[in-house]
Specification:
Layout: H1 2-24, E1 29-31, E2 35-42, E3 46-55, E4 63-67, E5 73-77, E6 88-96, E7 102-112, E8 121-129
Parallel strand pairs: 2-8
Antiparallel strand pairs: 1-3, 3-6, 4-7, 5-6, 7-8
Length: 136
């Protein structure tokens, strides 16, 4: 019985190691920072954040799209050419707070050939406050 248990444990470890190494192959997108907090901004303000990343995989990374959940959030730029292993890139995200009020949590999805594409999401938060009218 002990031999059977040892065999099952060893087989499980081998399968786990193989799955881990298989997942690590191909392009891998690794962000320096996946979230950003703009803090408090005034309604109507426009803010931007640059998210930097590295291809830590062993094949070229190709970003085909950057998807946002709202018209207030705009991907302003991302690399169109393949990023070679070890290469770096940036994705600039802009947020327009016009018509927004209160806490805003936005998620941006990076569509690519990365083997870790399930993890390829960046996000930001901010607190939008009403603009005070200036006395005349």
């Amino acid at each position: 019985m002990k031999k059977y248990l040892v065999l099952v444990v060893m087989l499980g470890l081998a399968v786990g190691a193989f799955a881990q190494s298989a997942k690590a192959s191909g392009p891998v997108i690794a962000f320096e920072k996946k979230t950003h907090d703009f803090g408090q901004i005034v309604q109507g303000d426009k803010v931007e954040q640059v998210f930097k990343f590295t291809n830590t995989g062993n094949e070229p990374l190709i970003i085909t799209n950057v998807q946002v959940t709202c018209g207030c959030t705009t991907p302003k730029g991302w690399p169109r050419d393949p990023i070679q292993p070890g290469g770096k890139g940036e994705i600039t995200i802009a947020f327009n707070s016009a018509g927004k009020i209160g806490r805003q949590d936005k998620v941006v999805t990076i569509v690519s050939n990365a083997s870790n594409s399930d993890d390829a999401k960046i996000s930001f938060t901010t607190q939008v406050v009403e603009k005070k009218e200036q006395p005349q």
